[in-house]
Amino acid sequence: MGCNLICISARPAVAISQYIDYAIGMNNPIQDSAAIEFAKGFYDGLGYKISHNQDVFQRAFDEGMVAIEMENLSQGAIPVLKKR
Question: What was the pLDDT predicted at 1?
């Protein structure tokens, strides 16, 4: 079974997470610079080697959050990960 992932606003992310494995939502508008840093961190995180019991999408999401924080952007609470 493959994993589905989608990025949308937070309210639809909650609703759609009933039908797909993962949804990333934004609970407020996010600045372009923060969105770019999150995306870079997220996709970098997808490429990391992980242990067999580690959730690859949770790890990638966490890396995206760290990328926002490392750039001192005050938007780290905006992205949210919803799981089915």
Answer: 36
